[in-house]
Amino acid sequence: MDVNTTFLTDSGLTVGDTTTVNLLGTTNSTIPIKIVGEVFVPSNNPSLYASAQTMPSFATPKNLQEYDIGLRPGTSPGAYIRDVNTTLGSHSPWIAATPQGNQFYGIATSLIALLAAMVAIGAGLGVLNTILMSTRDRIHDLGIFKALGMRPAQVLTMVVCQVAVPAVLAAVIAALAATALTTAAVHAMANAAHSSVPASFTQVLPPSRLALLSIAALAIALAGALLPAAWAARARPATALRAE
């Protein structure tokens, strides 16, 4: 039988232990059970989960609340729900519906994507402002370089490359910090909800994905530096040399 985290915490038991429980609506008041797993169901109430096949006496009207059905790949959830409800009829005490958690996760994913886009735009604007100020401070030096024969393409490359090394270092540090903070935040929320969390909740980004995110951070930094670099490349040497 599976149990939630609150059951293990309150009873002091662990997965693999055997105990006895009292279940309402059963022929025997005391039933021996073996804990075979921990389920992710945040709740303050100790709960047990078993199937009708492993414990027939548990599946009584007093204990049975819902059926969870997994559809085969390619099956339309909407069409399945309509067919089941049509077959059961409007007077049936049972109704098929999509779990509300799917809608919640969809909204949460959209909000996270919007937040990520805002962070990317803010990071690009920050790089643009920093490189613009740095380029304006060095415009006299750039004028000397251009007067000595540096081509506009070389000026563009030099200014853009200023952000390459800091961007790579920042991306690596940010990826490690984000992973650690996300893990800590998820575990803190799980503790507040009296539950543990599966490892898949925190190990969602493999190293290859983190590397891609670091490359994306580098691309954002280079894009932010491109406009000041183009302005420096177009600057006339005489105008740059008069600037202080």
Task: Identify the notable features of this structure and list them briefly.
244 residues, mainly alpha, 2 domains, two-stranded antiparallel sheet
Radius of gyration, in angstroms, nearest whole number: 30 Å
DSSP strand content: 5-15%
Number of helices: 8
The CA-CA distance between the termini, in Å, is: 78 Å
User: Which parts are unreliable, with pLDDT below 50 for 5 consecutive residues or more?
Assistant: none
Main β-sheet, spatial strand arrangement: 4-1-5
User: Helix and strand string, N-terminal first?
Assistant: EHEEEEHHHHHHH
Q: Helix/strand-derived class?
A: mainly alpha
Helix content: 55-70%
Q: How many strands?
A: 5
Shape: elongated
Number of domains: 2
Average predicted confidence as pLDDT: 78
Biggest sheet details:
3 strands, mixed
Structure, described:
The protein has 244 residues and is mainly alpha-helical. The chain folds into 2 domains: 2-65, no CATH class; 100-242, no CATH class. Helix content is 57%, strand content 7%. It has a 3-stranded mixed beta sheet. A two-stranded antiparallel sheet has the order 2-3. Strand 2 (18-22) and strand 3 (30-34) form a beta hairpin. Helix 5 packs across helix 7. The chain is elongated, with a radius of gyration of 30 Å. The N and C termini lie far apart (78 Å).
